Amino acid sequence: MPASEQIKALVAQMPDPDERGMYCHVVVGRDDQGKVKSEPIDKGKIDRAIAEIRKAGRDGVVGVIDLLVEPLQTGDPMPVKAHYALHVLALEACKQGGDARRAFADAVASQVGGDRPRPVQAYLIQELQTAGEKEVAPVLAKALADEELCEPAARALMAIGGAAGPLRAALPAARGQCRLTILQDLGVVGDAASAPAFQAALGDADPDVRLAGAWGLANLGAAAAADALLKAADAREAWERVQLTKACLVLAEKCAAAGDKATAARIYKHLKDTRTDHSEAYVAEAAAKALEAVQ
User: What is the tens place of the pLDDT at every residue in 56-70?
Assistant: First the structure.
């Protein structure tokens, strides 16, 4: 039996999800009243099939990936089974660790960035998040330039660790949703080297990008950006003004915690003096109380 047919037969032994999307039981039919009949999955059967796939090494992993056809091909039962098989292979690779994990991650990473459908590549990146370590970072970094793959790639890099460098390197060429995703994640990891990019984002035409820049600066406790952040908050209205004002308050808290009470006081005083409308009275009150605490 050719290897591809063998892998297909092994993957076909994976269970289908029940009506709840769970894999605890296998649907075997319906009774006379039309109720679903199910039985517990045969874990031993699954384990034996996975073991056979693992024996095929890289060809086995790639063979399973070959079965990750687009779900739009109705009537083909393989995508769900192949998803299940690949995830179990990832978990087994993690359990084995060492060379086994690296070999699995390398096989999966080799299939990212080519001509496979983007939904398939996104799923592969998800499995790299499970089983990959820093050796797959270059593949994930390249995926940051792809609008459909940027978010899962960034998420995987964040989970693996050491995301700041690849994210920062990808930012200058990033556009649209990719740029927003990268800015947001750089803010989450607190990348100090991205402070100029966060400050530049405050003047962007996209309000989501402006907010990403604001929260990046706030999370960094970037005292040097206090004036720019206050100016951005003052210039906006409604929901965005509220969000930017929140970022100013977070920045003040960070500065105070770091011992820079002068910058914190300046932010609080500005908010106390400028949030004079009744709809912003709560901001002025909170800023006044915080100002007393830092003086």
Answer: 999 999 999 999 976
Rounded alpha-carbon distances, angstroms, from residue 115 to 95, 103, 186? 30, 22, 29
Rg of the chain in Å (alpha carbons): 26
Domain boundary assignment for the chain: 1-132, 190-295
Specify whether the CB–CB gap between 196 and 167 falls below 8 A. Answer: no
Residue 86: closest CA among 134, 45, 49: 49
Q: Which long-range contacts (CB under 8 A, 24 or more apart) does 45-50 make?
A: 45/13, 46/13, 46/14, 46/15, 46/88, 49/10, 49/11, 49/13, 49/14, 49/85, 50/10, 50/85, 50/88, 50/89, 50/92
Judge whether 198 and 183 are in contact, CB under 8 Å. yes
- Give the whole-angstrom CA distance, residue 244 versus residue 226: 12
- Between CA 219 and CA 52 the distance in angstroms is 49
Other CB atoms within 10 Å distance of the CB of residue 31: 8
Condensed to tens digits (0 to 9), the pLDDT of residues 229-281 reads 999 999 999 999 999 999 999 999 999 999 999 999 999 999 999 999 999 99
Query: How many CB atoms neighbour CB 42 within 10 A?
Result: 13
Residue 130 near residue 140 (C-beta atoms within 8 A): no
Half-sphere exposure of 198 (CA within 13 A, CB side): 31
Rounded Cα distance, 34 and 37, in Å = 9
Residue 207's SS3 state is helix
CATH number of this structure's domain 190-295: 1.25.40
pTM for the full predicted model: 0.85
pLDDT score of 1: 42
- CB 91 within 8 Å of CB 130: yes
